[in-house]
Amino acid sequence: MLTHNLGYPRIGSKRQLKKASEAYWAKKSTLRELLQTGADIRETNWKLQLEAGIDLIPSNDFSFYDQVLDMSLTVGAIPERYHTIVTDQKKPELDLYFAMARGYQNDGLDIIAMEMTKWFDTNYHYIVPEFKKDQTFKLFSKKILDEFKEAKRLGIHTKPVLLGPVSFLLLGKEKESGFHRISLIKNLLPVYIDILEKLENLDATWVQIDEPFLTMDLSEDEKETFKYVYGEIKKVCPSIKTILTTYFGGLKDNLALATSLPVCALHVDLVRSPEQLDPVLKVIPENMSLSLGLIDGRNIWKNDFEASLKLIEHAKKSKKENRLLIGPSCSLLHSPCDLDEEKNEDSLSIEIKNWLAFSKQKINEITILKQLSLDKENDLVAPIFEKNQETIRSKISSPIIHKPVVGDALKGLTENHSKRKSTFSVRQKLQRDNLNLPLFPTTTIGSFPQTKEVRQWRAQLKKGVLTQNQYDELISKETEAAIKWQEEIGLDVLVHGEFERNDMVEYFGEQLDGFAFTQNGWVQSYGSRCVKPPIIYGDVSRIEAMTVKWIAFAQSLTSKNVKGMLTGPVTILQWSFVRNDQARSVTCQQIALAIREEVKDLENAGIKVIQIDEPALREGLPLRQSDWDDYLKWAVESFRIAASGVQDKTQIHTHMCYSEFNDIIEHIAAMDADVITIECSRSQMELLDAFAEFKYPNEIGPGVYDIHSPRVPSIDEMVNLIKKARAVIPDQLLWINPDCGLKTRGWEETDDALKKMVLAAKSLREEP
Ligand code: GLN
Ligand code: ZN
């Protein structure tokens, strides 16, 4: 039996990559320094896995931004607009790469970034490959080969990881009509074969090819493509050992397909879908190895060794031991780096810490499981097994997890809790009288730049360098300045700026009961952006008001309406590490009740507009369409529980970003928010079509500029986008706002962009 890993986090246990990339982008460090940081992280990760005893250690799991963008660059899928960076500017490969990810405003050039979207049902975002009808491919970036050689020089024989060709195409988007991207496979496959041959020449033995789409609904055409691709690979590279990995769900109706492909090994996710082991074992060919994904790559709980050993034992009954591999369910990209970095018992008690395992610990779990499966009585590992079981038992019975009052509150929920008093048309009228807004009201999504200073104050507060009063004073000043500035530039509905918040989920989690926190549990969200998801370990309840103080303060400074800003229950759930001992829907309802209390408190404090952000609603969608309705039902209901405790004249906003809406539009409508603001600009308002077709009845603010890039659009650009929106949405329902919050932007570009946005709105109001 072999142990392997599907991928290790590449941010560095102290977020070295974030710091190095951002310094490079700000021209505060050299390319060499950035490349060195990358090399250091790779070396650390490889050595750590080597020392733990992992047999097949991945390479090319490292990325400076995103593994899908890596693949686009590898196969030369570089959209035309970037070609001048290579040909005229002769920039290094990494600059081209970052230009594709982030846009490029330099040397008289102004090139927009590629689209970004969520990676399956995770909070990781990838850069969407762009395809033309006559798309050609060629081996462009040699990263995968270089990293294999680099590890080899360190004495480590790695297993290179490739995003599979079918998934790569399916993750992309056609940039012109008249073809389906899957038809490009004939052009693409030769590049993959070229890579595999080159790896073979470098002496690579195992290669991991990720095809997560095998756990999704596939068309006949796509299934055929899988057969074609892996048949060809087998023909041309018969000696390379391919591990085909599937994750984030079960193979289900694709099981026969997956096991029919001529690959050496098939990896299955037994955390999300333990029940698939039996059917897989029944049909997997004798000569195909099976990789058991036993360790949860998506969550932070310790593995239950007994449960995993049962699965291994079961597999051993029908599969020879030398045809078995064990590993994590998916890449550890989605897990934090190292639990040993957690030293603060105030945020993470010893009791809770003892229930957890991060990437480094998970790597050890894999090798221990192997030893246990070889000999459970072994003196070295038997005590580890005992301790593991003791921990699992202590968690089940711990009194810090179960709170009877929370259960009672859930039982008290009735239908009325998830219904506003009147229908939207009635509310709309009352809200118009209450708010007095112009046509095309302008607003923002909530956060303003979290400058170095603001983050420093928070760090100093934590260290005790600043007292709470001093910190509050600084935040008040910042909020005050933001209110004044918004009045000056002429926005209609103001926000307080979220300066007091470290993160839109952590901020709430820290004030709710049932949450624990890490100091260093960072996970990559996109590019250099990392998030530190809270850990929901027990029943959730609100202890006291969480946002009223700051919102009411901001409102006291202006006669304009300040929008109260909350994170919705589904998003809090989705962006936290959740309990694995109760249904997600139950945890979500608990959070919804806590947010509902907060919404009511804001209303009582005189706040007339309250936004409940649900950017993660879509990413919570199960991968299989047949499971969608069930999820959407409880997710929408949770939002409605949170939103429905207020009077009709109080305006509830919600906000969503980076998602398609067409296939869930009826559920978005069922949320019944008075106003929804959505990300729209990168897709050039395409996302709005779903709302138009559905005749979405409530008000809507399609984002008119992309906030994930420092690029500032012109007034005309925004006017044109709004015109596109007006073509499909009635004027009376339209709001004008950016795509998302502005916390990752600088003040200079924010000021510039928002002034232009307000001017764009004004120019349209003045048009007849
Ligand atoms: N209110 C949040 C902000 O502006 C929303 C962020 C988000 O949608 N991701 O930062
Ligand atoms: Zn957003």
TrEMBL record:
Q: Cross-referenced InterPro entries, in alphabetical order?
A: Cbl-indep_Met_Synth_N, Cobalamin-indep_Met_synthase, Met_Synth_C/arc, UROD/MetE-like_sf
What sequence ranges are listed for the domain Cobalamin-independent methionine synthase MetE N-terminal? 3-318
Give the catalytic activity. Answer: 5-methyltetrahydropteroyltri-L-glutamate + L-homocysteine = tetrahydropteroyltri-L-glutamate + L-methionine
Domain Cobalamin-independent methionine synthase MetE C-terminal/archaeal: residue ranges: 440-762
Any GO molecular function: 5-methyltetrahydropteroyltriglutamate-homocysteine S-methyltransferase activity
Ligand binding (5-methyltetrahydropteroyltri-L-glutamate): K118, R529, C530, W575, E619
Q: Which domain of life is it from?
A: Bacteria
Identify its protein family: Belongs to the vitamin-B12 independent methionine synthase family.
**PANTHER family to which the protein is assigned, alphabetical:** 5-METHYLTETRAHYDROPTEROYLTRIGLUTAMATE--HOMOCYSTEINE METHYLTRANSFERASE (PTHR30519)
State the name under which the record lists this protein: 5-methyltetrahydropteroyltriglutamate--homocysteine methyltransferase
Instruction: Please give the organism.
Output: Echinicola arenosa
